[in-house]
Amino acid sequence: MQIATRINNIEASKTLQVKEKALQLKAKGIEVIDLTAGESDFQTPEFVAQAGIQAIQEGFTKYTANNGIPELRTNIALKLKKENNLEYTPEQIIVSNGAKQSILNALMAIINEGDEVILPSPYWVSYPEQIKISGGKPVIIDTRYHQFKLSASLLQQHITPNTRALILNSPCNPTGVVYTQSELVQLAEVLKNENIWIISDEIYEKIIFDGLQHISIASLGNLIEKSIVINGFSKSHSMTGWRVGYAAAPLAVVKAMSKIQGHYTSNASSISQKAALAALEESGTEVEKMRKTFEERRNFTQQQLDSRPYFSYVYPQGAFYFFINISKAFGRRAGELIIENSLDFSAYVTENYHMVSVPGIAFGANDYIRISFTASLEELESGMQKLIQAMDQII
After folding, report:
1. Do 170 and 261 share a structural domain?
2. What is the pLDDT of residues 19-57, one digit of tens each?
3. DSSP 276
4. Are 241 and 306 found together in one domain?
5. 223 and 303 assigned to the same domain
6. DSSP letters along 213-255, please?
């Protein structure tokens, strides 16, 4: 019996071996500091959870419309107009089982076999694999030597007759960079004359620091007509397990996405949709409380990194990650191991110092690791001490 050929083109997670080692250590009763989480350590706000409970108690547990309940799509459209200066009708909104499904829905709807999708690197781990699943070809643009952002000139250089889409993520996972209005305007100047879809992943828009403001590239010029805006509730409202994301796009794209979703998951959870509706209606205070806490944790982690001259990192203006350059450890001996890449480094620190990070190779940057500051200050302090001890030993 054979496995489908398409599976051979999709890479398994490069982080599994490190995570598996961490689980083995925990099973032995060893305390492990895990700084890999892509989710908040906060509980879902109580009023959101209660809305889900109420939905169950009232029997709202059946199938809904494939694209989402009308009142949720209406409120998403209102949110996009008020907060993002984006004009959509409820019919141009599709609610899915998380933003991840929304992105794959979009790619499946617009990509033909062999189409190119421009992807700035470092990137979120699932982007290139989702492009491949949809039959497309990822065109990776390394931004490490360009302040970790896609510039207009870089974009222009990589557009070909086969380019069908661009994926843009701001605030960015894993780097935390946030595109300014000026930078987005420059990208928009290139894109307005091209027949290219823009998939704008804005899932971290509420987690942004230093007084910066999130701007959607779809709000610039007439780009809304060629944009697919992705967002959700996982990061902003600590609702990762509820699995609710959404996309806003031209009606023809939403109809195509709806066809796809209708055949492999149908609607998002009815209960989760009611919870998401509550999150939209009265979420400001709780979201800001979480954002401020993440900013405090970012500042603390930065102080720890700045205490050693061998650390360099991308300064995170949003999201909740530090992307740390550990290349000074490469070629160095750590016990019996010679550190050659980010996988070696992460595995060594996990095995010997019991602190887990995500190897940068998973994001297209093998000289980095990603740590999350969604842990408590106590856990962050312990984790950073372990990372510093490891680097002190190696360097």
Report:
1. yes
2. 787 788 889 898 999 999 888 999 999 999 999 999 999
3. H
4. no
5. no
6. ----GGGSTTGGGGEEEEEESTTTTT-GGG--EEEE--HHHHH
